[in-house]
From TrEMBL:
Family listed: Belongs to the choline/ethanolamine kinase family.
Name used for this protein in its record: ethanolamine kinase
GO CC terms in record: cytoplasm
GO terms under biological process: phosphatidylethanolamine biosynthetic process
Protein's organism: Anopheles merus (Mosquito)
Lineage, uppermost ranks: Eukaryota, Metazoa, Ecdysozoa, Arthropoda, Hexapoda
This enzyme's EC code(s): 2.7.1.82
InterPro entries on file: Kinase-like_dom_sf
Pfam family, one: Choline_kinase
Keywords of the record: Lipid biosynthesis, Lipid metabolism, Phospholipid biosynthesis, Phospholipid metabolism
Pathway entry: Phospholipid metabolism; phosphatidylethanolamine biosynthesis; phosphatidylethanolamine from ethanolamine: step 1/3
GO-annotated molecular function: ethanolamine kinase activity
Length: 370
């Protein structure tokens, strides 16, 4: 483990973000977290800090660092946010997929707007950031009437954020898909994985042609480009029941993209990850209620018509196809490089087959005014 050295940078009016040279081993995240705490929480007594490894993620490793006010206190009790630091260690080779500088800029931008946790520090292969009270969504709670309107409104608020930079940015989707396709290996290191992948997927050249055709169709829907999270799986939404609010976390893929992609991507995640069930994909009736609440917030109180809801409904379901396509390719890269114990080949195959099954029906959807 390398020595901790570093500097600090501005954090949008908050405490400065420490930049550390530390590299944290995936096999020693607690030890690495201890070194980071020495810099960002020097007043914490090491003997009074408890660590909890979170195992839900399939991209990174996450450890919670809990300052215990009373010896032997139960970390399961709701702690005060200032008494917890979350430390995320990037997964192996994920720098191939993610612009980490852009990620930190996105977190700081959204934190200024009150939509993201504070960033405390960056290190060579990870981040330390603010704890957000609450629980992650599940395939059941994401359709709870107390929860989904909060998600719809928060997404609309995020989509109205104006980031620094070009006033008419290009959407991330085509460039990201191109990047992913370039990273798919011609032959997987594991022969068994290689056999499983190519039983389901066509060649990279055919995948590229398939997406170009799909994206050409999607562009005709004129979905606006807004600031998107781009990865709103259920584990990236924290629900705080006590304060009736939700917070989005993990802005690794955030950036300008089609509005309908962000919503459609979220809807595809209703199926879950560990035991994917696309029978949980939201019904048209649920979607239209969700989208009406979203538009009421996004359009700032302007009248929301049935036609505008239907137009967004069509866009969202058609862009959900792009979500399936994108993450199925992402899974192939993870299958080659990730050290996390997860069947990425199965995940990718499931999403690609769902894309194929839904494609004709979703592309046949039409707005009422067409």
């Amino acid at each position: 483990m390398s020595r901790v050295t570093g500097e600090s940078s501005a954090n949008g009016g908050g405490p400065p973000v420490q930049k550390l040279s530390l590299v944290v081993s995936e096999q020693a995240v607690v030890e690495g977290a201890t070194e980071i705490l020495k810099v960002i929480r020097p007043d914490w007594c090491r003997d009074n800090v408890r660590f909890k490894l979170f195992t839900d993620g399939i991209t990174n490793k996450l450890v919670g660092c809990f300052k215990q006010p009373i010896e032997g206190a139960d970390t399961a009790e709701t702690p005060e946010p200032e008494d917890v630091v979350l430390i995320r260690v990037y997964g192996n080779k994920t720098d191939l997929l993610i612009d980490r500088r852009k990620e930190t800029e996105n977190i700081q931008l959204l934190h200024r707007h009150g939509y993201a946790p504070a960033l405390y520090a960056t290190f060579a292969n990870g981040l330390a950031y603010q704890y957000v009270p609450g629980v992650t969504l599940t395939p059941d709670t994401c359709q709870d009437d107390a929860v989904w309107p909060l998600v719809a409104r928060r997404m609309a608020q995020m989509h109205r954020v104006q980031p620094d930079g070009p006033t008419n940015p290009e959407p991330d989707l085509p460039a990201k898909l191109d990047q992913f396709l370039r990273l798919v290996p011609d032959r997987f290191t594991d022969p068994h994985k290689d056999e499983r992948v190519w039983k389901v997927f066509p060649s990279v050249a055919k995948l590229r042609n398939e997406f170009e055709e799909l994206y050409g169709r999607l562009l005709t829907t004129d979905s606006p480009v807004v600031f998107c999270h781009n990865d709103l799986l259920l584990g990236n939404v924290i629900y705080d029941e006590r304060h009736a609010r939700v917070t989005f976390i993990d802005y690794e893929y955030a950036g300008p993209n089609h509005q309908a992609f962000d919503i459609g991507n979220h809807f595809t995640e209703f199926a879950g990850i560990d035991e994917i069930d696309y029978g949980r994909y939201p019904t048209p009736e649920f979607q239209r209620r969700w989208l009406r609440v979203y538009l009421q917030e996004y359009d700032k109180g302007a009248p929301v018509t049935d036609v505008s809801v239907q137009r967004l409904y069509v866009q969202v379901n058609q862009y959900a196809l792009a979500s399936h396509f994108l993450w199925s390719i992402w899974a192939l890269i993870q299958a080659e490089h990730s050290t996390i114990d997860f069947d990425f080949v199965q995940f990718g195959a499931t999403r690609f087959l769902e894309y194929r099954q839904r494609k004709d029906n979703f592309l046949a959807l039409r707005c009422e005014d067409e």
